[in-house]
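Notebook entry, structure prediction.
Reason for the run: the old model in the group folder had no record of what sequence produced it. Starting over properly, with the input documented here first.
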Amino acid sequence: MTRSRFTPTSRTLPADHAPCTIEDPELFWPATESEAGRAKAVCGGCPIARRCLTTAQERGEWGVWGGELLARGRASTDLPGKGRQPSRTPQSA
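New structure, fully documented this time:
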């Protein structure tokens, strides 16, 4: 299974202004409910969240995209990273 992430050089979305570009990419491939919540919170104030979600749905992506947890581009409750150790990203206050 390949994990894909938009990057600031992506031609699909102008990710240079997306808050996810400064986060650990593993956060968006959550192993725990807590990580999923933190990833969704990052997307909460993103100016391109809607386009990110739409593009991820079209591409059949896994993980948190545009504030939604997806599996093959569809809303899901399955944690795609549950086979790995949780991220060491500190929780925001």
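Summary: The chain has a mean pLDDT of 78.
The old model has been moved to the deprecated folder.
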